[in-house]
Amino acid sequence: MKWLWYLFCEGWANLRMNRTTTVVATLTTAFTLACVGIFLLLYVNLRNAADWLQEDIRVIVYLEDRISTDNTQELEEKLKSDLTVAAVRHISKEEALSEFRSEFPSDSHLLEGLGENPLPASFVVTPASNYRSPDAVRRWAERVLTMAGVAKVDYNQEWIDALAELTRYIELTAIGMGVILSAAAITIIGNTIRLALFARRDEVEILRLIGATRAFIRIPYFLEGAILGGCGSALALGMLKLGFELFRQQIASTGRFQGMESIVTFFPVPISLLFVAVGMGLGVAGSMVSMRRFGEARG
Amino acid sequence: MPTTDAMIQLIHVSKSYERRTALSDVTLDIEKGEFVLLVGPSGAGKSTLLRLLIGEERPDEGQIFVNGKNVSRLKQSEVPFLRRKIGTVFQNFRLLPKKSVFENVALPLIVQRASAGDIRRKVIETLRAVGVEHKKDQLPGSLSTGEQQRVCIARAIVNGPVVLLADEPTGNLDPERTAEIVELFKMINARGTTVVVATHDPHVMTLVNRRVISLFQRSLSREQQTRASVST
Predict the structure, then answer these.
(1) Which CATH number fits domain A58-155: 3.40.440.10, 3.30.450.20, 3.30.70.3040, 3.40.47.10?
(2) Which of B83, B113, B155 sits opposite A3 (nearest CB)?
(3) Quick check: A84 and A127 in contact, CB under 8 A?
(4) Which of A69, A273, B97, B114 is the most exposed place for a label (fewest CB within 10 A)?
């Protein structure tokens, strides 16, 4: 195991040898990854909001006025037996009227002049959890609309679609920013590794001549890259957490977005760990690029 | 195929760098356990020949066998394993300045993933054999040139190579230190290791008194088989 210890010590020695470069590279990587992190955080919270709205989705199936009681029951059975439906509640014309009056007492006089109750009977349908995506709800609504006795199918489609679209844009921006800034992080770390390689080129040469394999020579530099990337991403995570808490305190103190501070969330632990792991991966990628260029340079 | 007793065999080997010819149609055999001097003026191709033997360069033409392996056809991934069978001594020692004498000598064993116990035992034994055991904790910079060359030799032999190649090993040493280093090579050879020393130092030729292979104008001009054939 002496060789493992040697490889670890060499990786650590590389970092210590170029202290200033190491600190600058770690900080630059941290800021770069923090930029990606901001978009990720925004994305995660919008996804949460979208999921929360999705959870609350209700589809209202309005019935034709002339539908018979038998047909209403038949339709209810059909909806209840549908695997994509979690719950069905029937609201008769009378119940609709009384709900309207209780919800809008000041507007109840609007219906008085009409004589007959103009409000339709309906089914309030809760889709099953796996069928709450905008596409699934749209497809379901289109299918139900063709059933006999159904006059209209209504749900808060515009709002859900808009949120889904915004989430998609944020997702695409996060991916785009992620790719560009990851390339920047790879370059920054790669340059640091190249400096270490240049400083230790004699040692690399000696190792080659005494029979070290390519992997043995490269591992300390991969370790250096992983440590740099890992430290950079952990620091970025710390900065994001600090910024997030300050933001949450700010919105709580203004009182304009009451309750919102309890809805916004930071990355859960698995995502945080993944963030650090990705940073380490970028560091190793930076090392690989440098090692390849170094190898090409020396022929 | 190499002859049975040959540790090193070159068959019509040529090597050029762009327009400059470094070696031209060289054929030679070095037997197992032999001690050979490779002599010739600067630029005669001695260092090129040694680089070819350790797989650092590939010949343009011809074949090279070391310890039964065709070096000229070795895959890049197999070269490190060839080098573990060959110890190399350099004129400028090439010791790592920030590592102690012990750590420098331990490197080839670490590379081969030897156990900590084995490393300690073999490094101490080797340092004792070359006479610098008492300097094991010092940095190379604090040693004399003669001591640095002893450490370099210790690093080259610590893993028991079958061949020891030395490129101008006494180039930086005074006559007294040169004699000591030559004695060390003789001792290593007496233990069964094939030793090839590239030199242009006539003093070394007198001290060694073994077969001399002369490289002149990048080809083998003559091979002196008799002992004491080179006089100063």
Answers:
(1) 3.30.70.3040
(2) B113
(3) yes
(4) A69
